């Protein structure tokens, strides 16, 4: 019986410490100010859909778009998405209201969306040599 009570005390103590740590972490993430009404939502469950994201975030203001990013090949969620509001004020309310909260059993984080970085231009396709072979950088020669 003593083991059970000390184990319970250990669990209770660690949950208090973890919630303090959790709240400090959440407040650190909220320190940057928004410059755009678009938010990046990370930590999404693989089961979260566009509709669920829209339903949860629509209570904070006029939501223009809610999009879960999915893998092209498998069609499964990549675990993050974007929500766009009509105003920066609505986005700020959503960020404060949903950051470090549970959605579909997972803790999500809401941060300002960053502009997409430009991709490098595609490399030209290597041309076959006179012998009909071309070089493949991964495995060597192929025919």
UniProtKB/TrEMBL annotation:
What InterPro entries does this protein's entry cite?
Answer: Nucleotide-bd_a/b_plait_sf, RBD_domain_sf, RRM_dom
> Which terms are listed as keywords in the entry?
RNA-binding
Specify the RRM domain's residue ranges: 37-115
Q: What sections of the sequence does the record tag as coiled-coil? A: none
Q: What is the lineage of its organism?
A: Eukaryota, Viridiplantae, Streptophyta, Embryophyta, Tracheophyta
| The protein, known as | RRM domain-containing protein
Chain intervals for the UniProt region annotation (Disordered): 113-143
Chaperone recorded as keyword: no
The Swiss-Prot or TrEMBL record annotates one GO molecular function as:
RNA binding
């Amino acid at each position: 019986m003593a083991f059970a009570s000390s184990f319970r005390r250990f669990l209770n103590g660690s949950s208090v410490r973890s919630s303090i740590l959790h709240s400090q972490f959440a407040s650190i993430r909220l320190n940057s100010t928004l410059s755009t009404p678009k938010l990046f939502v990370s930590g999404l469950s693989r089961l979260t859909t566009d509709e669920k994201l829209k339903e949860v975030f629509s209570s904070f203001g006029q939501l223009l778009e809610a999009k879960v990013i999915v893998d092209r090949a498998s069609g499964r969620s990549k675990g993050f998405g974007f929500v766009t509001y009509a105003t920066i004020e609505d986005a700020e309310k959503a960020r404060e209201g949903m950051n470090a909260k549970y959605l579909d059993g997972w803790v999500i984080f809401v941060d300002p969306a960053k502009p997409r970085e430009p991709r490098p231009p595609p490399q030209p396709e290597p041309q076959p040599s006179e012998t009909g072979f071309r070089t493949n950088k991964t495995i060597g020669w192929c025919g």
